[in-house]
Amino acid sequence: MSRGRRRLVKALVVLGSLLAFLSVCAIWVERQALDTDDWVATSDRLIENETIRAAVADYLVDQLYANVDVEKEIEGKLPSDVKEFAGPVSSGLRQVAGEAAGKVLETSTAQSLWEKANRTAHEQLKAVLEEKGDTVSTEEGTVTLNLGALLKDLAAQIGIGESLAERLPPDAAQIEILHSDELDTAQDIVVAVKGLALALSILTFVAFAAAIYLSRGSRWVTVLFSGIGLVTAGFAVIVARQIAGGIVVDQLVVDASAKPAGEATWSIATTLMVSIATTVIVIGLLFALAGWLASPTGSARACRRAVAPALRDYVPYVYAGLAVLVCIYFLAGPSQNLRSFLTTLIVAGMAAFGIHELRRQTAEEFPDASFEDTFGRTRKKVVSAVREAKVGERAAKLRLPELRLPKPAEPEGEDVREPAGGAPPAPAPSHAAPARDEDEVRLERLERLAALHEKGALTDEEFAAEKARLLGGG
Known about the structure:
mainly alpha, 3 domains, two-stranded antiparallel ribbon, 18 helices, 2 strands, about 75% helix, elongated
């Protein structure tokens, strides 16, 4: 490549990595803010967290005492001679109500009310932001999370719930999510985010695809660095989440006692962001693996040799397997929408192009490769390893100092000479017998010598001399 083309390829890889970082953030905002199911799933995890549950319980108790004259309610229930104790009882009941609220929020009934309140609030918010209803106008009105049902349930649990619905003001236990004067800005942000999430996802892969296409002659390097760029972008999102969490909590949570709940809320609300970033990291690792597979390294060549027969002889099955994997990935994904479909389609197209290039490369490098070559070499290595292990085991029994015996230059047909004492010599191997490993032949002879030595047919000196002659190649 020319210098200008190399610079352009590098710039496209860097641009793709930056777009990947931004697309993760945009996708998270779109799904967390505009997908009701994701919103409700997050809210369910929030109420299951002990720190957040305690904060919500405190809020409900404060709302109860702010909107209901609890002391008067208790006074009306006490006998006339002890009505003066209504004040102390009310104060003590506040502490009991705090503990009761935590228990109430653990029940399935309360969590169902919490889920219903969040779903209703988000559907209202989504309708407003997408201008699908007239619930909130720019002149007046708010979008709120109404926890009034939970407040009534709490009041009933501590014994002051009769006719509470009539005495509660309309705005009791309501958390404001969006005010009317913020509507125009919020709607503009939603339109921008929805467009960005789709555009950035597509542009990310377009940048990488253009870089790979332009880097003819060294595409494996570009694929490898594209994978590194995606992995870097994914980890950068996770690091940015940690940094932004501290800033957001410090800015939005003024009360120091509420900061633990704020930190837990941020952590749970950004779990989806981590999930998306992890997906980007996995895709990056697959890119890096593809780059390595196409590289000229010895391990990559060996791997290409192994898959060459399948890529040559079973092409339909290879692409059918890719199609099955793509379908499973899309259907098992957390969301099935246009952005997810297009992103999956682009990734599948790049994977198909990679398989095509790998088929061409393996056809040039290993035109005659077969499964027998790969598995035959593997079988030979296994047999050799087993044989060597057996030889080592038998040598250890004879207490030989060396497992690998030197091979003679040419076998001369010599056999072990007749030792003193008239013992018969070891028979020479028949020419009709199949050829055996030289080490095995020598070990058999050594075993015979050892047996003769143990029987007393050979003296120590004779045994040592014969063993030295065999080990020396004689």
